[in-house]
């Protein structure tokens, strides 16, 4: 008998004996040699490429899988590595033995990974397994990864940057038509997820070996006692009869539905996450009242990079209807982000880049989404973050003509919203300018500067929108005229309005500077307009216009280029 046959018989006998061994029958993972035997037999089946060998191994491996799954609740050892090795066998040889791997894969996620995602070895092996089999999983089981993306996000949130490269290989597979939009708030809330997981570990012990879904069951007796106490003593659940066992002022009720929603393992659609809820407030207080943990710091750094991948895949592969549906959620969440200074800056920068890229690619979205856009413009002064979002929306409305030439009714409604924003805030701008500069606090100075910046964008958007839709020109002249005559408002806003009023006196120049870059017929460039991107190669004169801008009288030509452009 050859050495290969001896090894084959030994490992096959090992699998058979494990079912009769009282020590391993009810807990197969407790025997480390069993994992080695499964891997060796799998390797031999691949090397020999023999259907007979696969048929002999499959029944024994399948029995071990069933026993391991049944023992998960009572097992004190990790089953993840053993189950992953068996799942690899199923994927490689399932067609030969007519085994559908889909139920086994879902059982692994629901019963095993939900308990062992915090185990570094299991987490790494899971991502390696998903990365190696990514193509087959996406073609044969396309709904698997999108269904369990919350669990995989818990895995990467807990294990941090050391698994980031592996996770990024798998991450695009989490996106599907059913998970694309629900995935977005999960990415934004990754830091909150880490804080919640750390709270669970602190209150309930190590995360390895216990399913977070069991929290609700474990707290049920406590809730029942609280209800009985309320019935007999009159004390409410919230006040606990004037007694609290916890000294933590930011205590989190881990049985709260919102908390369990945050920690769920499967995708069941978009869930509302009210930031004003007591649980969310408690989670944020727990984060800000203590120094950031290393795990939270890692996620604060990693989440923006995950958003980069999310948005790049969205622009490349996702259909327009899903992207259009994402935009209102993006605008709604723009001001509700974990308020770490660097994290919020990096995230908001990516949100704005994606928003503007989407409008650039599909200008008609502005018309389709006029209602949420108008709502955001109405909140322009609620906070600095909402001001910045409104500013960028004003730019997009003007740049893309409110959705294009074919959306005149929507453009008119957007124009009216810009008018309202302008008129409502001109008076407050005047009030700010009447105060002595020396009496203004830093906060007032910042607010005044931010307000003036926004009004400049509003004025520009009104002028550009009227240039795109010429039926709006009379109203635009009235609006800009009021700004220009408002002597005590910010000088920059007045100057901008005067500039645009001057441009509107010459329709050809106004159309070239403020008009659309695409004609209604769909050609790249309208007749008479300038494509400034080609200015370096196609401009008639290489003397920048701003050099001649201060000159008065007829043009003069008694100079050489060396007088204007320095020698290199």
TrEMBL record:
Residues 30-154 form the AP-5 complex subunit zeta-1 ARM repeats domain. It comes from the Eukaryota. Residues 293-519 form the AP-5 complex subunit zeta-1 C-terminal TPR domain. This is AP-5 complex subunit zeta-1.
């Amino acid at each position: 008998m050859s050495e290969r046959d001896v090894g084959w018989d030994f490992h096959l006998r090992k699998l058979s004996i494990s079912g009769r061994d009282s020590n391993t029958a009810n807990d197969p993972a407790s025997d480390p040699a069993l994992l080695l035997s499964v891997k060796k037999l799998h390797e031999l089946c691949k090397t020999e490429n023999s259907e007979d060998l696969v048929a002999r191994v499959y029944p024994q491996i399948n029995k071990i899988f069933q026993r391991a799954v049944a023992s998960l609740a009572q097992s004190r050892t990790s089953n993840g590595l053993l189950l992953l090795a068996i799942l690899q066998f199923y994927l490689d040889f399932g067609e030969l033995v007519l085994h559908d791997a889909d139920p086994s894969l879902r059982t692994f996620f629901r019963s095993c990974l939900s308990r062992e995602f915090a185990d570094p070895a299991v987490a790494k092996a899971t991502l390696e397994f998903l990365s190696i089999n990514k193509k087959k999983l996406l073609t044969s089981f396309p709904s698997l990864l999108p269904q369990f993306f919350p669990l995989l996000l818990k895995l990467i949130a807990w294990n941090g940057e050391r698994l980031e490269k592996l996770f990024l290989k798998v991450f695009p597979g989490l996106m599907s038509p059913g998970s694309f939009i629900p995935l977005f708030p999960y990415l934004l809330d990754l830091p909150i997820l880490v804080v919640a997981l750390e709270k669970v570990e602190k209150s309930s012990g190590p995360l390895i070996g216990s399913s977070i879904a069991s929290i609700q069951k474990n707290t049920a007796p406590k809730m029942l006692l609280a209800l009985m106490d309320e019935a007999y003593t009159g004390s409410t659940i919230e006040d606990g009869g004037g007694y609290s066992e916890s000294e933590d002022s930011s205590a989190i009720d881990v049985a709260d539905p919102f908390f369990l929603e945050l920690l769920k393992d499967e995708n069941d659609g978009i869930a509302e996450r009210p930031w004003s809820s007591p649980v969310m407030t408690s989670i944020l207080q727990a984060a800000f009242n203590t120094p950031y943990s290393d795990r939270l710091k890692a996620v604060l750094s990693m989440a923006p990079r995950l958003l980069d991948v999310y948005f790049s895949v969205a622009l490349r592969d996702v259909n327009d209807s899903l992207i259009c549906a994402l935009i209102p959620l993006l605008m709604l969440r723009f001001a509700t982000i974990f308020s770490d200074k660097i994290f919020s800056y990096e995230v908001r920068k990516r949100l704005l880049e994606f928003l503007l890229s989407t409008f650039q690619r599909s200008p008609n979205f502005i018309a389709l989404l006029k209602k949420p856009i108008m709502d955001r413009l109405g909140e322009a002064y609620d906070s600095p973050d909402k001001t910045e979002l409104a500013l960028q929306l004003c730019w997009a409305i003007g740049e893309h003509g409110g959705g294009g030439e074919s959306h005149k009714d929507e453009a008119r409604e957007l124009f009216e919203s810009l008018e309202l924003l302008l008129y409502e805030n001109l008076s407050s701008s005047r009030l700010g300018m009447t105060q002595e500069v020396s009496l203004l606090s830093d906060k007032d100075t910042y607010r005044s500067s931010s307000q003036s910046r926004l009004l400049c964008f509003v004025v520009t958007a009104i002028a550009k929108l009227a240039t795109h839709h010429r039926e709006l020109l009379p109203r635009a002249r009235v609006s800009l005229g009021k700004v220009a005559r408002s002597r005590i408002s910010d000088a920059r806003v007045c100057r901008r309005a005067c500039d645009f009023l001057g441009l509107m006196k010459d329709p050809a120049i106004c159309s070239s500077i403020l008009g659309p870059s695409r004609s209604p017929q769909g050609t790249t460039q309208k007749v008479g307009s300038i494509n400034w991107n080609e200015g370096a190669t196609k401009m008639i004169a290489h003397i920048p216009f701003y050099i001649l801008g201060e000159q008065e009288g007829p043009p003069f030509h008694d100079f050489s280029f060396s007088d204007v452009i320095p020698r290199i």
